[in-house]
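ingest -> validate -> predict -> emit
validate: passed (alphabet ok, no gaps, 660 aa)
predict: started
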Amino acid sequence: MVEGRLNLEPEVQEIFKSIDEGRNFLLSGGAGSGKTYSLVNVIRQTIAENPTAKVACMTYTNAAVKEIEERVNHKNLNVSTIHDFLWDSIKNFQKELKEALISLANDEDVTRISIEEINPVPDNYYAVLPDGIQYKEFVRIREGIISHDELIIVANHLFEKYPKLSSIVKDKYKFIFIDEYQDTSKAVVETFLTHFKKSERKNIIGFFGDAMQSIYEEGIGNLDDYKGSDLDKVNEIPKKQNRRNPQLIIDLANKLRTDGITQEPSTDPNAPNMIGGSIKPGTVLFLHSADGDIQKVKKFLEENYSWDFKNSKETKELNLTHNLIAGKAGFRSLMDIYDKDHILGYRDRIKKYIKDNNVDTDFSENTFGEVIEALQQDKIGKELNAVSPTNTMQTFIDDNAELYAYAKSLKYTEFSKIYVDKDQLLDDKKQDEDDEKKKGSKRDNLIKHLFKIQNNISLYQNKKYNEFLRVTDYRVRIINIASKKALKENIESLVNVGDKTIEEVINDASKKEICLIDDKVISFKEHKEYLYNRVKAVKFSEFQKLYEYLEGQTPFSTQHKTKGAEFNNVLVILDNGNWNDYNFSYLFDQENIYQQLVDGKSKTKSKLESFPRVLARTQKIFYVCCTRAKENLAVFFHNPDAQIITKAKEWFGDVNVVPI
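emit:
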């Protein structure tokens, strides 16, 4: 055996057998199996055996990039996000990039890339483009600027069309390893496992991940279409050990897995879930009540099991959606502005009507109110309904008459361009304040500016004075004791924000040179006036609650956001939150519910068709949530029926199903 391999864990030895055979491989490991540990060992051994070869390692977030770079530091290793790797591979081929973007924009099947009002896009459209095609955090196809989604499509197109591109990448990297493969786009996997084959050059592609943790819809989920025993297929190597969870949680998790992997406790006596040579037992609880009072659930866990919900590092409450958390965590107003503005919903209804009915009236000089009036004129019945608010929209409009009057006064051309989505408020992969900021955040420029203000405040509060001095806009004027004193007074006036609104704090922070109002904020106020005016009136203290939540400083987290993290105590709230993609009742009572849908087929056709997909997604998110717990797990189900209780007793054990 090659030197050094004898000391490697068995699964990693199997990986190197695949590498020796020239085969691509997949390490499949369940939660807590130590996949990153294996990945790091594979990288180290690969470099030791191939000292002149370059190795690429791709993963999902910048935080993961940072973690791997800290564990393996070598000049021949390039660790990056998948997006950065793809862009680095194609960015120098500007002629081909321009052709690809034009071709895709003219392809009706590619809905994500288009240039409105230009059809077809001429071949010379990007002839004069000073900076060429660029990859940024926002998309402007007209200006040759692509973002994350477009990059994956463009890269896949180029690798498919130009086999030489695959040869160039293969020559550069003899080994390419992809972490958390299940979250990777199908197009990315197609690039590496289909288009790469068009090049006769040799290299190894290795995947690391877990199909049961594929909880993002855009991810490929599994490599079933590529796996097999033939040399040109991907060789799957299962990793069954579990180093994180106590025995009762491993037992529960195994009942949830659907891919044939049955996890076993680690044999390593130093594994986190071992104590004194034996695996920790842990606790699992299925709690339920008729009233759905979460505070009562928390009190029960605090009094009977000594859980501490004030310690956000050790104890987390997991909800399915941010909406279910917003009220509890104290940022309800901001959430409603970004996710429940039915005036914007009505505006979108009007936009769709104009497009679908080919209305060619020039509304460039009209207000939103005048456009509504013009479209409603002389219409009755169904035609009038089509350009009127729905009942839900009308209720919101009635409750916000002043806001609606203001919206109607805005120029329609500007108002129609305002894009508002909850990701602009919430997008972030962070669990802790120490995690590196995620590249490609979808936060809008106003929210980014507010984060900058609060970051400066937090640095000062946490006595990180040198860091604070580096980032504050006042730093250029600190020349003597008097200027330091003035800065201290300025920042402390911001620490005590009291009832000040977001706008008041933005202006204060700029005036006191803690955080200057920049071009991006000025542009936001100008082009997104409606949204700015809604946000500016909210108290800054509410934004601070949002900041604490996104920085992992509260006991709350969404179930999606917690993937990859681990905590001593985990409370999972089984509430679908009106989200049709998940249904926890399906999970606990699938046979009965499926039969009911079959029996009522004429009325439930869409639910019947979506049942397998919804069940699979729910099972995976539940698996991810349960396996976050290093010590104790509790799940809460509001008012379950008898069949759900029966399944809970089967999974959790009779004594662990507790009414409260």
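Residues 429-440 have pLDDT under 50 and may be disordered.
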